[in-house]
Write a structure and sequence with these properties.
The chain has 481 residues and is of the alpha/beta class. Helix content is 38%, strand content 17%. It has 15 helices and 20 strands. The strands form five sheets. A seven-stranded mixed β-sheet has the order 14-15-16-13-12-17-18, sandwiched between helices. β7, α5 and β8 form a beta-alpha-beta unit. α3 packs across α4 and α9 packs across α10. It is globular and about 65 Å long. The protein starts with 19 loop residues before the first strand and ends in a 7-residue tail after the last strand. The protein binds 7-thionicotinamide-adenine-dinucleotide phosphate. 7-thionicotinamide-adenine-dinucleotide phosphate (TAP) binds next to α7 and α8. The site of 7-thionicotinamide-adenine-dinucleotide phosphate has 28 residues, from α7 and α8.
């Protein structure tokens, strides 16, 4: 049954947008070489003008980070660093509503998700890593692991503030300073985060934010003053960065794409599995690296499960991301929409059957309806390539062994899901799935204490948990932090 809801738009009044934003270097907002505009993908309205950092700007930011590293941050006792991180975490909570609204305006994701997932998890990452700052000697990397130095961090647009938190919180907790480049289409919450660093009295230069496009990212990762690069984004760009870092001796972690299998066995409760499938692929419009974009369903329940899934998809509300009833928001950019359209057209051309939930798409902005492809074979592009949109490819299997073979038949290895009531089958599957995270009877669960990362073309290194600290420590070092 479909309930009609009156619109319940969240107010934008909590956000004060500036007309233009500078770069955040050495604790201050400074002008840069040129500017670009950031728009709302739901309405195409211009939100603000943002500075494009060129070579001199990146030089300045790296120099500020180096100075802060040598004079202040690397010599500060861990318990003092921890206080700053706790302060940032509390400020993120205090400004949570403003950050959630701004994230939804700039990214297009439903306010329910930015309010209930992105911002609380970003604060949780700072709380979690604040706790580690004075306990690094007990993390299992020797009695006094040392920081690495200045870290260059480049993040994507799908979880702008959350990805920033995943990068900055562990780096700072371990005693490193950072220069971070947010994605071109979603710079605004990173710039409010810069204000939060000022509010927290973070020593100048410990965090520097340089906005810009891929060329700014390229300048940052290639900069000789950077000791470590941390990147989240596409596998194509990740490979380019890996090549650049290989000859420079910089430390590197890469969190790249995925094509996760969500495997549903015939003994799983169908309604619960349907919720997990919907959450797995339609959360954040499917702009999720670990999205459950390939549904592997046991043949004997395929018809029943697909009917239930389509019924559920017909209840999903697509539209204004600021409306608290909205389930599916806007696609983040025209470029991403084009990519989704191109890949879904290839699915039809290669013989798969497309079904989209009937829903009216708004006239302005970038939109794509929740879509399922059946009759998909492992060779189809929609079974192999990351679509990064609200599109599910369905394949069937008969035995657990066949499920494993199909699930692992991908160049990626970031995440997977298993749905069955048999605990032994969950363990059997989890030990054979080549994926960094395996969820059982749930999907898309995140916790700062749980390490996250991939195999194969999904990258290397872990973020979160004790394992995530290793990426920001010289584990062979000797003196105190
Ligand atoms: P990318 O094009 O790879 O962009 C990621 C970031 O890198 C952006 O800030 C981008 O800047 C910058 N960049 C682009 N070219 C660069 C270069 N040559 N050198 C250095 N930096 C460069 O990916 P995207 O389109 O933003 O994000 C979607 C992809 O990211 C998907 O494939 C998704 O799977 C992956 N992703 C993975 C994860 C994890 S945790 N594994 C998480 C989120 C997303 P501009 O935005 O200015 O172009």
């Amino acid at each position: 049954m479909r309930f009609e809801y009156a619109p319940a738009p969240e107010s934008r009044s909590v956000v004060t947008l500036r007309d233009s934003y500078g770069l955040f270097i050495g604790g201050e907002f400074v002008a840069g070489s040129s500017v670009f505009k950031t728009i709302s993908p739901a309405t195409e309205e211009v939100l603000a003008e943002v500075t494009h950092a060129g070579p001199e700007d990146v030089d300045r930011a790296v120099a500020a980070a180096r100075q802060a590293y040598e004079r202040v941050w690397s010599v500060m006792p861990g318990r003092e660093r921890g206080k700053y991180l706790f302060r940032i975490a509390r400020l993120l909570q205090e400004r949570a509503r403003e950050l959630a609204v701004l994230e939804t305006m700039d990214n297009g994701k439903p306010i329910r998700e930015s309010r209930d997932v992105d911002i609380p998890l970003a604060a949780a990452h700072f709380f979690y890593h604040a706790g580690w700052a004075d306990k690094l000697g007990y993390a299992g990397f020797g009695p006094s692991p040392r920081p690495l130095g200045v870290v260059g961090q480049v993040i994507p647009w799908n979880f702008p503030l959350l990805m920033l938190a995943w990068k900055i919180a562990p780096a700072l907790a371990c005693g490193n300073t950072v220069v971070l480049k947010p994605a071109e289409t979603t710079p605004l919450t990173a710039l409010v985060f810069a204000e939060i660093c000022q509010q927290a009295d973070l020593p100048p230069g410990v965090v520097n934010i340089v906005t810009g496009d891929g060329s700014t990212g390229q300048l940052l990762v290639a900069h000789p003053g950077i000791d470590k690069v941390a990147f989240t984004g596409s596998t194509a760009v990740g490979k380019e960065i890996a090549r650049a870092c290989a000859v420079s001796g910089k430390r590197l972690t890469l969190e790249l794409g995925g094509k996760a299998a969500n495997v549903v066995f015939d003994d799983s409760p169908v309604d619960q599995a349907v919720e997990g499938i919907v959450n797995g692929i339609f959360f954040n419009q499917g702009h999720v690296c670990c999205a459950g974009s390939r549904l592997l369903v046991q043949e004997s329940i395929a018809d029943e499960l697909l009917s239930a899934l389509k019924r559920r998809m017909m209840t999903l509300r697509l539209g204004d991301p600021m409306d608290k009833n909205t389930d599916i928001g806007a696609i983040n950019s025209r470029v991403q929409l084009d990519k989704i359209q191109e890949l879904t057209a290839s699915g039809e051309a290669e013989g798969a059957e497309r079904w989209s939930a009937p829903c009216a798409l708004p006239d302005r902005g970038f939109w794509f309806p929740p879509t399922v492809f059946t009759g998909v074979s492992a060779a189809h592009r929609i079974a192999q390539e990351e679509i990064f949109g609200p599109v599910l490819s369905v394949l069937t299997f008969r035995t657990p062994a066949e499920a494993i073979e199909k699930a692992n038949n991908t160049p990626y290895g970031l995440s997977a899901g298993v749905w069955t009531e048999k605990g032994s089958l969950i363990l059997w599957m989890a030990s054979r799935l080549r994926a960094g995270v395996v969820w059982a009877n749930t999907f898309n669960r995140f916790d700062p204490a749980a390490p996250f990362g991939g195999y194969k073309e999904s990258g290397f290194g872990r973020e979160g948990g004790r394992h995530g600290l290793e990426a920001y420590l010289d584990v062979l070092g000797g003196s105190d932090v």
